[in-house]
Amino acid sequence: MLVRNEKVLWRELDGEAILLDPREGCSYNLNVIGTLIWKLLDGKHTEADIAAVICESYEVDFEQALHDVQKLLDDLRANQLLSDVAAPSHTTA
């Protein structure tokens, strides 16, 4: 599971997000779909979950959506804008 780096500041303007990494002094712009992906990076959604949401919101097949999600996540990781979190464990009592 992935989550937004908590040190990254961000604002949404007209459906698009602007991310600011204060440590690096860099800003990043995301389009509408990138912003949707960014919002879903809450540690509760897998890459497949996010691709499914995109398919529900836009006319795109699942494989293309998943590819696009993975590509953006690779870019966000490369710029240290994401943090990995452990997947929730399923325990039975």
Strand content: 15-25%
Low-pLDDT ranges:
89-93
- How would you describe the shape? globular
Count of structural domains: 1
Can you tell me about this structure?
- The protein is of the alpha+beta class.
- It has a single domain, classed as Outer Surface Protein A, domain 3 (Alpha-Beta Complex).
- Helices cover 40% and strands 24% of the residues.
- The chain is built from 3 helices and 5 strands, in the order E-E-E-E-H-H-H-E.
- It has helices at residues 32-40, 47-57, 62-78, and strands at 2-4, 9-13, 16-21, 26-30, 82-84.
- The chain has a 3-stranded antiparallel beta sheet with strand order 2-3-4. Strands 1-5 form a two-stranded antiparallel sheet.
- A hairpin with a 2-residue loop joins strand 2 and strand 3.
- The longest helix has 17 residues, at 62-78.
- The protein is globular and about 35 Å long.
- The chain starts with a strand and ends in a 9-residue tail after the last strand.
